[in-house]
Amino acid sequence: MLESINPSGTLAWKKLREHYGQMEFVQMQELFAKDPERANKMNIQWEDFLLDYSKNKITEETISLLLELANELNLKDAIQAMYNGGIINATEKRAVLHTALRDLSDNSSVIVNGENVLTEIQETRERIKAFTAKVLDGSYTSYSGKKFTDVINVGIGGSDLGPKMVVHALANYRTELGMHYISNIDDDYLQSVLNKLNPETTLVLIVSKTFTTQETIENAKKIKYWLESSLGKVDLSSHYVGVSVAIEEAMSFGVKRENIYPMWDFVGGRFSLWSAVGISIALAVGYDHFEQLLDGAHTMDKHFKEADFKENLPVLMALLSVWYNNFYGYETEAVVPYSQLLGKLPAHLQQMIMESNGKNKDRNGNPVNYQTGTLIWGEVGVSAQHAFFQLFHQGTKVIPIDFIGFVNPHFKESTNHDILMSNFFGQSEALLKGKIGEEYESDGGPFLSNFREFCGNKPSNTILINKLTPKSLGELIALYEHKTFVQGVIWNIYSFDQFGVEYGKILAKNIQNEIKSKNICEHDSSTAFLLRYFVKNRVVE
Ligand code: F6P
User: Virtual CA dihedral for 430, 433, 439, 443, nearest 10 degrees?
Assistant: First the structure.
């Protein structure tokens, strides 16, 4: 169990409040002018990563007070409790052990309910390895003995976003298998995917921790119908793979026992890409690259567990975010990767961060009296510059940004990489410095110069990584996972349940019955009005 301490009642919080009083109107430009060594002092270099956090509204005192806060809230103990398999997801009475999924060492053990969970995790990894190799070399075949050409991953939320993001990110490591993700319950899209595929050589992964998620099961049924109606009365069991905690349910769907891979209740959906949920990753980039991804995450796990908080990437990034969220009152954060291949990272982070920390009750079940989970959003740079950066530069809101970029491109001969990265550096510099004073006089006279002025002082982190590889991607994802965890600890909330989303699922099920029977029950007047309109105009063929 995690302790329950109201952060706003701590001494460090009180000191941070007072400190904020002194910092509120301080301009970062002044801080840089006063201390030429600022960037040298405010960075962390670890493995292939460089985090420059000097472009933030902080002083060394801010950092030391934030670290005091972490210590007063016993962050170290919380980290230990997670790694040791403590029941830190108390509302669901579960341990939280996505870190165990990427522990590749042979001699470790993590004991939950008297059992070493690493044993089954290792066995599952071996099965994924063997299966992937057989699909890729064509020795595991379709019902007709053909090599599979395409894979459909059916799943939603954590059973979709993480694997899809990784496969997209590692496009330069791809095997020849075509990879398709079906998550939303949207027949028009599903049909557009199926139309392009050959059922005879399509493998279907049904990924659902619970095997009860309606969207996934209904989509899987549709795909099953597509296979059966196209291929006739043949044994199609080799076309199905299941990943779930619910083995019986997967079997009654028609997945053979030997094609079912386990999930564990100590792994939340949004932290599950490292398990068999990531089987589409192993198929898409080969098992060795999948293992390098796990190794990267494990390397970050060790850093998070062992590094001094001041040098600890996830801890520091989490504390900076708390500083803005709880003292400056900035509500959103943007993540802008300067890599088209990381285009799906913001969506994955949205589930990871907002499903985890979108909570308004503390660990005693009482309403919190401070802000919790931040809103996360983003898009790839440079494209994002031509979309929403105007608001960063001259809008009335302040949005702290994580700029993520790579020193080296995948292909050595890439000449455009330096153009991409010039934008990367130029934007955070412009956001810091702004454009003021005599600089604009020459730009078009005093009237126009008002509009051309921008004040700068906009905070950002720069995360510069040597190269986008499976390993560095694993490190990056794990960095944000641990940042999320630290924030949950600071905010005294439970980060690993998601009752809000589950309530939405129940309401949808009830409404579905009403639509079917055309019998609209008691609702607020808006919902009732909309449902009646829908039922009246819905044309059923
Ligand atoms: O959105 C709620 C949720 O439970 C997520 O946490 C999860 O990733 C998703 O639904 C899918 O759940 P499952 O893997 O059980 O189908």
Answer: 30
Question: Ligand 1 centroid vs 498 CA: distance in angstroms?
Answer: 9
Identify the active-site residue in 355, 417, 481, 482.
355
Residue-wise pLDDT for 131-177, tens only, equals: 999 999 999 999 999 999 999 999 999 999 999 999 999 999 999 99
The answer to whether 505 is a known catalytic residue is yes
410 is annotated as an active-site residue: no
From 41, 134, 302, 505, the catalytic residue: 505
pLDDT digits (tens, 9 = 90+) for 238-286: 999 999 999 999 999 999 999 999 999 999 999 999 999 999 999 999 9
Active-site residue (options: 34, 233, 386, 516) = 386
Torsion angle, alpha carbons of 349, 350, 353, 358, to 10:
180
Nearest to 491 by CA among 360, 343, 393: 360
How many angstroms separate the alpha carbon of residue 209 from the centre of ligand 1? 7
Rounded to two decimals, the pTM is 0.96
Ligand 1, CB within 6 Å, residue ranges: 155-159, 208-210, 213, 216, 269-270, 355, 498, 501
At 213, give phi and psi (nearest 5°).
-65, 115
pLDDT tens for residues 278-332? 999 999 999 999 999 999 999 999 999 999 999 999 999 999 999 999 999 999 9
